[in-house]
Amino acid sequence: MRIGIGYDVHQLVDNRTLIVGGVTIPYEKGLLGHSDADVLLHAIMDAILGALGEGDIGKHFPDTEGQYKGASSLSLLKAVYSMMAEADYEIGNLDAVMIAQAPKMSPYIGLMKSKIAAVLHCDESCINLKATTTEHLGFEGRGEGIAAQAVVLLQNCAL
Ligand SMILES: Nc1ccn([C@@H]2O[C@H](COP(=O)(O)O)[C@@H](O)[C@H]2O)c(=O)n1
Ligand SMILES: C[C@@]1(CO)OP(=O)(O)OP(=O)(O)OC[C@H]1O
């Protein structure tokens, strides 16, 4: 078994679509990034890459490369899943938290879980997603950005 953690932050700005956990969420702002800036999927990918001892998403999908401009983070997650499967690992369980004053994430968590489970070829019961505000404290609390943290346990499926 191998464990990994991931953490990511993206700024909330005007004129961007808000995509979190592979789901488009109606909101007045969206996250800024080279890719679609899906902060939750970025934290999950970093956790998986960490567990594999493979660095982070910046190493595999550099933001200096045009091919990742506007990239769907679900497609990047598919590439991370391929690395994981190639190394004979499967998801044991994954736990993640989104830190956002707004919007309310709970209505979208079911759909996020189904999209992530489909890409990672695991049962939805292996994935736990949650959200918290910071009670208006800090950059998340001021609505300037959204953060996400993830922890993943990988199991060796060749054993
Ligand atoms: N962006 C968010 C933040 C929170 N939630 C849900 O609300 C609950 C209460 O949040 P607190 O920060 O006041 O603890 C939290 O447990 C989440 O279920 C949310 O959906 N979206
Ligand atoms: C996802 C990548 C893809 O170029 O770009 P960003 O959307 O800017 O996201 P970040 O969390 O800064 O990670 C770096 C890159 O891998």
TrEMBL record:
<keyword id="KW-0456">Lyase</keyword>
<comment type="similarity">
    <text>Belongs to the IspF family.</text>
</comment>
<feature type="binding site">
    <location>
        <begin position="8"/>
        <end position="10"/>
    </location>
    <ligand>
        <name>4-CDP-2-C-methyl-D-erythritol 2-phosphate</name>
    </ligand>
</feature>
<feature type="binding site">
    <location>
        <begin position="56"/>
        <end position="58"/>
    </location>
    <ligand>
        <name>4-CDP-2-C-methyl-D-erythritol 2-phosphate</name>
    </ligand>
</feature>
<keyword id="KW-0479">Metal-binding</keyword>
<comment type="pathway">
    <text>Isoprenoid biosynthesis; isopentenyl diphosphate biosynthesis via DXP pathway; isopentenyl diphosphate from 1-deoxy-D-xylulose 5-phosphate: step 4/6.</text>
</comment>
<feature type="binding site">
    <location>
        <begin position="132"/>
        <end position="135"/>
    </location>
    <ligand>
        <name>4-CDP-2-C-methyl-D-erythritol 2-phosphate</name>
    </ligand>
</feature>
<comment type="function">
    <text>Involved in the biosynthesis of isopentenyl diphosphate (IPP) and dimethylallyl diphosphate (DMAPP), two major building blocks of isoprenoid compounds. Catalyzes the conversion of 4-diphosphocytidyl-2-C-methyl-D-erythritol 2-phosphate (CDP-ME2P) to 2-C-methyl-D-erythritol 2,4-cyclodiphosphate (ME-CPP) with a corresponding release of cytidine 5-monophosphate (CMP).</text>
</comment>
<dbReference type="GO" id="GO:0008685">
    <property type="term" value="F:2-C-methyl-D-erythritol 2,4-cyclodiphosphate synthase activity"/>
</dbReference>
<feature type="site" description="Transition state stabilizer">
    <location>
        <position position="34"/>
    </location>
</feature>
<protein>
    <recommendedName>
        <fullName>2-C-methyl-D-erythritol 2,4-cyclodiphosphate synthase</fullName>
        <ecNumber>4.6.1.12</ecNumber>
    </recommendedName>
</protein>
<comment type="subunit">
    <text>Homotrimer.</text>
</comment>
<dbReference type="InterPro" id="IPR003526">
    <property type="entry name" value="MECDP_synthase"/>
</dbReference>
<dbReference type="InterPro" id="IPR020555">
    <property type="entry name" value="MECDP_synthase_CS"/>
</dbReference>
<feature type="site" description="Transition state stabilizer">
    <location>
        <position position="133"/>
    </location>
</feature>
<feature type="binding site">
    <location>
        <position position="42"/>
    </location>
    <ligand>
        <name>a divalent metal cation</name>
    </ligand>
</feature>
<feature type="binding site">
    <location>
        <begin position="61"/>
        <end position="65"/>
    </location>
    <ligand>
        <name>4-CDP-2-C-methyl-D-erythritol 2-phosphate</name>
    </ligand>
</feature>
<feature type="binding site">
    <location>
        <position position="142"/>
    </location>
    <ligand>
        <name>4-CDP-2-C-methyl-D-erythritol 2-phosphate</name>
    </ligand>
</feature>
<feature type="binding site">
    <location>
        <begin position="34"/>
        <end position="35"/>
    </location>
    <ligand>
        <name>4-CDP-2-C-methyl-D-erythritol 2-phosphate</name>
    </ligand>
</feature>
<feature type="domain" description="2-C-methyl-D-erythritol 2,4-cyclodiphosphate synthase">
    <location>
        <begin position="1"/>
        <end position="154"/>
    </location>
</feature>
<feature type="binding site">
    <location>
        <position position="8"/>
    </location>
    <ligand>
        <name>a divalent metal cation</name>
    </ligand>
</feature>
<feature type="binding site">
    <location>
        <position position="10"/>
    </location>
    <ligand>
        <name>a divalent metal cation</name>
    </ligand>
</feature>
<feature type="binding site">
    <location>
        <position position="139"/>
    </location>
    <ligand>
        <name>4-CDP-2-C-methyl-D-erythritol 2-phosphate</name>
    </ligand>
</feature>
<dbReference type="InterPro" id="IPR036571">
    <property type="entry name" value="MECDP_synthase_sf"/>
</dbReference>
<keyword id="KW-0414">Isoprene biosynthesis</keyword>
<dbReference type="Pfam" id="PF02542">
    <property type="entry name" value="YgbB"/>
</dbReference>
